[in-house]
Amino acid sequence: MFIPEIYKNENQEEIKKFLQENSFGILVNQTDGKLCATHIPLELDTNEDGNQILCGHISKENPQWKGFTDNDQILAIFSGPHSYISSSWYDHENVPTWNYIAVHVYGKIKIIEGEAVIESLKKLVDKYEQNSENPVRVANLSKKTMMQTRGIVAFEIEITEIQATRKLSQNRDNKNFQNIISELEKTEDAQAIAVANEMKKCPR
Hints:
The protein has 204 residues and is an alpha+beta fold. The two termini are 25 Å apart. β1 and β2 form a beta hairpin. It has five helices and seven strands. α4 packs antiparallel against α5. The radius of gyration is 20 Å and the shape is elongated. Strands 2-1-5-6-7-4-3 form a seven-stranded antiparallel sheet. Helix content is 26%, strand content 36%.
């Protein structure tokens, strides 16, 4: 990913938090000479060696998984809030742009089987059921329901590189920067307001 220096984010704690809060990503790899992409939750975890990994699964009916063994190189793309920035919000003539936060994770993928699959599913379900009034637990599901796990391919991705960008008008002077925040908040659009809130966190 091309990232101008001013927008580069190398704060590992910020990146980790972002991945945990924006874990619905796009898994990209090459299968049979074609690029394939699937939108799925990809959960940040740590393996037994203490290395960061991403965990996930896709349907066996999805041919993308057949490329995992032929070429283990993958790209996982995660997006945060984003919004159009009108140049009418500046005190000078310029072009419109877009503010956004994104993280690209590169790594090596391997298929997992057996009990490791169940443990991965438990962590996934527990994370998203924690605020449910009647949380579902994988351990409480019937054998008949758990038979559906035969229809998935679970995997772990050993992370080899992370590229993170926070393009939030850091190149603007303070007057224009603050005006962009104000205009974003006026839109009453959830994405725009989220971008405004992220801009407020930027050191000036």
